[in-house]
Amino acid sequence: MARQTRGTRSCAHMPHSLRCGNDFVQEPFPFNIRVSMAVWNALYLKDQRFVPDAGKTPEWNHGAYLVNGLAHCATCHTPRNALMAEDDSRFLAGGSLGTWYAPNITSDATNGIGGWSEAELVQYLQTGRVAGKAQAAGPMAEAIEHSLQHLPDADLKSIAVYLKQTAAVGGTEAQPRYSYGTPDVKNEEALRGATGTVDAGWRIFSGSCAACHQATANGTGNGEYPSLFHNTATGASQPDNLIATILHGVDRTVEGHARFMPAFGDAASFTDRLSDQDIADVSNYVLTQYGNPATAKVSASDVAVLRAGGKPPFLAQVRPLILPALVVVVLAVIAFAVLRGRRKQSA
């Protein structure tokens, strides 16, 4: 019988190779055969207990234990190699989660969280939001809602202490993700009521985004809707999280208070469903006006890939070839054995 694992309430971040239903994820051959993990385990399984570093403080060690054990932050935030093992040379340097992207959380000041204070990190882990920096969506919102917000302050402080002292790992960011953008009311005022040809992205922003995020993209003062500038989703060197947020919305509940943004993708219920081109247009408008303009190159095909669950990992791409390859290998072994037997007989 095929091995099954429990699904989550959102399947948007599941790899292409998995079929996501309401309750279970069905793993395809050969990933549903446990014995196939033997070689992988021999290469990559870290079957070791946590050992405190005597040269570090108890608080740092407690943070290391939580980050690398119970919270398993590296599972999302560390990139994977071709066999889906974590690339330890880029520990916590960011990794793709299908539709979403888990960013660099090393101490690097430009690419990671080096510009965050410990207090800001604790606030983010507790609430999923830090004004002028970031807000949680997708799998991170689930982690905060169902786990991190319930941790004692001392645990969250230990996590922050540890992360602030991790080895800095660089990346593709030209400046911190949260540092881009300014409010812009002139463009909105100039275009509102305009006739003729206007930016297609502005039309969608004005009709579907400005009512909540405000015409200036400044967000709401109570934090219900964040600013679109000084925002890691719009300032990153890759726009995946901005696109994913538009597609799937935001839904997290912290301390009994819901933070909600409706989806504009296939799961849209309170809003019109936007096409791939619509989402590309509004993404490019937001990136140009309020975020990192260098990334304002989103195409409809980029959105289509993320809508479908993201680019499949290497193993998922080659999976259809695994069974034919095994058949060829078996036939080759049989042919070799037969030929060798005949040679012995003729000798």
Pick out its properties.
347 residues, mainly alpha, Cytochrome Bc1 Complex, Chain D, domain 2, 2 domains, three-stranded antiparallel beta sheet, two-stranded antiparallel ribbon, 9 strands, 42% helix, 8% strand, disordered N terminus
Please specify the SSE layout and strand pairing:
Elements: E1 4-6, E2 19-20, E3 24-26, H1 37-44, H2 58-70, H3 74-77, E4 95-97, E5 100-102, H4 118-127, E6 129-130, E7 134-135, H5 138-146, H6 153-164, H7 186-191, H8 200-213, H9 232-235, H10 240-248, E8 250-254, E9 257-261, H11 276-290, H12 300-307, H13 314-346
Antiparallel strand pairs: 1-3, 2-3, 4-5, 6-7, 8-9
Helix pairs in contact: 2-6, 4-6, 8-11, 11-12
Question: What is this entry, summarized?
Answer:
By secondary structure, the chain is mostly helical. The protein is built from 13 helices and nine strands.
Task: Report on the architecture of this protein.
The chain has 347 residues and is mostly helical. It folds into 2 domains: 1-48, no CATH class; 49-312, Cytochrome c-like domain (Cytochrome Bc1 Complex, Chain D, domain 2, Orthogonal Bundle), CATH 1.10.760.10. The protein contains 13 helices and 9 strands. It has helices at 37-44, 58-70, 74-77, 118-127, 138-146, 153-164, 186-191, 200-213, 232-235, 240-248, 276-290, 300-307, 314-346; strands spanning 4-6, 19-20, 24-26, 95-97, 100-102, 129-130, 134-135, 250-254, 257-261. The strands form 4 sheets. It has a 3-stranded antiparallel sheet, with no helix packed on it. The protein has a two-stranded antiparallel ribbon with strand order 4-5. It has a two-stranded antiparallel sheet with strand order 6-7. A hairpin with a 3-residue loop joins strand 2 and strand 3. The longest helix is centred in the last third of the chain and has 33 residues, at 314-346. The radius of gyration is 24 Å and the shape is globular. 35% of the residues are buried.
